[in-house]
Amino acid sequence: MQYSNRVLNTPSSFIRNILKVTDAPDVISFAGGLPNPISFPLENLQEAINRAIDENGSKIFQYASTNGYLPLRQYIADKYNRKHDLGITADDILLTTGSQQALSLLSQVLINPGDGIIIEEPGYLGAIQAFTMSEPSFYPVTLEEDGLNLEELKVALDQPNVKFIYTVPNFQNPTGLTYTAERRKEVYELIKDRDIILVEDDPYGELRFKGDSLPYIAAGKSENSVLLGSFSKTVTPGMRLGFIISKNKELMRHIETAKQASDLHTNIFSQYAIYEYLTHNEYDTHVQKIIELYDAQSKVMLEALEEHFPENVSFTRPEGGMFVWATLNNGMTAMEFFERAMDVGVAFVPGDPFYTSKKDVNTLRLNYTNSAPEVIRDGIKRLATILKDAEIVQKS
Amino acid sequence: MQYSNRVLNTPSSFIRNILKVTDAPDVISFAGGLPNPISFPLENLQEAINRAIDENGSKIFQYASTNGYLPLRQYIADKYNRKHDLGITADDILLTTGSQQALSLLSQVLINPGDGIIIEEPGYLGAIQAFTMSEPSFYPVTLEEDGLNLEELKVALDQPNVKFIYTVPNFQNPTGLTYTAERRKEVYELIKDRDIILVEDDPYGELRFKGDSLPYIAAGKSENSVLLGSFSKTVTPGMRLGFIISKNKELMRHIETAKQASDLHTNIFSQYAIYEYLTHNEYDTHVQKIIELYDAQSKVMLEALEEHFPENVSFTRPEGGMFVWATLNNGMTAMEFFERAMDVGVAFVPGDPFYTSKKDVNTLRLNYTNSAPEVIRDGIKRLATILKDAEIVQKS
After folding, report:
1. Same domain? A250 vs A224
2. Are the Cβ atoms of A4 and B250 closer than 8 angstroms?
3. Contact, B157 vs B194, CB < 8 A?
4. B84, CA 20 to 30 Å: which among A55, A395, B281, B379?
5. Overall domain count for chain A
């Protein structure tokens, strides 16, 4: 059987492939991107679920509309208008089966084989995977400390048939970097008059533990803006509930058709349950608890990195979110480091799957949200021993 | 913005587009394909959900594996081995976001633009929509009383790059027809030595109210078999839970990659909830109740059709499932009939969206599962008045 080019060219997820190894009980894993289960509002969710059933009966178990449960879309519109002044209505929102599905739908409706996608380098591997299924040409643009490199962005924008730019402006996956206010404006100036969609994927935006929340690059300002959100990092990822926000009616109509073809509609039981949870609990207080937890865990990791890692390893200092990005400057590739790290029972994600055009890189992603402080310290110490051994070998 | 060819060529669902009209409270709708909400095991599901939370805690709210919850896959394997002697293991099963997603994934991994799909004519419109997103060439084969027309099938099998055949062998959507045992064998003989996948989509198989259950065409016999199942028609469609069964390891590996790219994994909360429901309740007794309900409702519709419809309208007599298929032989197209039917407050689905190569057809789908007996009688009577008026006009 000859399989489709799209699937033959699509990498299976490195993270999901190593789950069996990294999930072993004696392995310290900084590999996944899992929220800390402590952060799930278990009791309040259970109450919300029972209330949703008691009050709505069989209709939460029936087929439902493709764009999603109206009160939940209205809740999201009100929240983004209040917090980010977007000027949107419930009709500008479509609920998706996690924001992974939003990435898949966007590329399905915008990309013919060979059309261009501008992507941060390094970029989110789930996005690379979703987009690759539509057989695009990737135009990677270096993600710097302040955001996308503007010179590279200018060149990329002039490439043929570029359909959209994919960004994660807050606490990016994998780097943890956040675009500065200045860089957001500069990127907006470059794209605002072009027939190119700017996608801002913002699953972590609420999880800021340092500094002030910044305005989006294009959301609320441009017809060509698409903003993605998710309940996975603040309520539950297991229910797979994300959303697409855009005032671009034509785009949203095509996305709705693609959504029908993909899975008819998003799990309606979960939509009711999460709506009930959001409207009957102090969501902001709950998010504040997650922020404090991740703030503490990130501090522990950064302190351990400072204390134990050799000076030739640099790393980012995130203001929120879930990840630290480290760069080895000792001649070792991240894959070599990964293999030796498995020997000492520590896992992380080598940088390779976050690049569309590079291999054998010297960068890696460390997750701090899903390990207790003492485990983080222990894991970083173990990794440090490998790096020190490597230095000794190098010097000898 | 230039959208992708795949989405520009994909019809949005006729059924979903007319929902606003057909869902009005004063409209009698035979249009949808909704299970009767009476059939949802509401109380037992609520118990199962609470048990799932109490016993498993936060892990049912966390990210999960792409192929699905192992005990549920094992349950499905055991059931199909017991009832259909398929000889499968849990690893031959992947849980999907409804069986609509299974249709989407199959075409994504098998079809390059222009590759062939053999489809029943008329065929399931959700499948036509899902497949069209992969830009195939459709080779429709007439679905007759006994199953696919064999002469047409032979010709279609010899078309270039045919990748799979899509069938609904039991109580087909839209016709309600069931392949005979003999025709199943004949189809199997034609396909068994070819490098072509046979998809058997069987969401209604358990809902048989007449005759005996028949062996699948290829499931359990051939490496090239794919069997699709769903909990939508017997437990709940709202939770979007379906499954793919195939012993073809290479195919399943590609489907898993496409599934990761599409939505990472199926809602794990719902997988646990439905597993708890299935393992703590008399599922067969529950299904028996649905069968009795639909048997009664189908009888009412068939009797009303016999009594009120003119003789030049023919219709199928399903042995199970949810639909009757009617053919007008009075010169009227189904779309004309539909428009007049809306004037008397009755909706159905005109046949057009079930064909890949025909327009202005004289066939239509009637659903009997989601209306009470007296409503069914009233609706069919109202439709009959239009047909009688048309006859008078024709004669005069």
Report:
1. yes
2. no
3. yes
4. B281
5. 2
